[in-house]
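Practice problem 4.
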């Protein structure tokens, strides 16, 4: 529910923006959600329509909202913004940097999994279960392309459950690099005895630990997930 506080400041547009950004950060306003009409915003914020329009214009320029004729103002999905394409392409096309990407995943994924086990809500559990089921289905069908996509989606669902907006933004902004790491991991698993079965068990361990709220087990399962692949990359270097 969108409950705004009346504004008591000469910097009206900035205060309006601060309130809306805070609601986005807290998850009260979500991507794709329609903002209150200008009239209702004016009433709740106790400001003029000119101030509301100024705030919306500034947020539009910053990529926070988008306006549509006849459909009002919509909150943008700020998490879809990625790191710069040139940097992303350089990293992806440099085989030597696969280890760097994987080490980055070890840092982010492990801590994210631990936090998720501590903070996940019932709604988070539902989304993690859906993501895990999609990953299992892709694995059972031996659809490697879909396995890469669902693997990344599973780890993002865990990042969502941390309720840490900076961590989530970091992972989403690097989603193509994460998928590249998963692709290389799949190539590695194809050449390992029972590689895909072991991978499935590792994801199951992560899933169960997070859902059950066992932070220690979640962290250990996440560390174990990339351990052998990381060692392989280090030996290959």
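Answer key:
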């Amino acid at each position: 529910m969108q409950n705004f506080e009346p504004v008591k400041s000469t910097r009206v547009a900035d205060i309006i923006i601060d309130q809306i950004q805070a609601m986005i950060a807290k998850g009260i306003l979500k991507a794709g959600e329609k903002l209150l009409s200008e009239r209702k915003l004016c009433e709740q914020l106790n400001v003029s329509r000119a101030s509301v329009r100024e705030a919306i214009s500034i947020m539009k320029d910053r990529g926070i909202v988008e306006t549509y004729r006849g459909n009002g103002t919509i909150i943008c999905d700020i998490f879809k913004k990625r790191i710069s394409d040139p940097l992303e392409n350089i990293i992806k096309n440099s085989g030597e940097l696969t280890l760097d990407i994987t080490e980055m995943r070890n840092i982010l994924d492990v801590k994210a999994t631990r936090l998720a086990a501590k903070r996940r809500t019932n709604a988070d559990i539902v989304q993690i279960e859906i993501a895990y089921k999609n990953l299992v289905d892709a694995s059972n069908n031996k659809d490697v392309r879909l396995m890469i996509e669902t693997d990344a989606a599973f780890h993002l669902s865990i990042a969502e459950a941390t309720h840490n907006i900076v961590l989530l933004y970091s992972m989403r902004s690097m989603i193509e690099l994460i998928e590249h790491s998963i692709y290389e991991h799949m190539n590695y698993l194809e050449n390992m005895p029972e590689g895909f079965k072991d991978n499935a068990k590792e994801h199951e361990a992560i899933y169960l630990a997070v859902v059950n709220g066992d932070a220690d087990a979640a962290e250990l399962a996440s560390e174990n997930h990339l351990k052998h692949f990381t060692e392989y990359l280090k030996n290959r270097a």
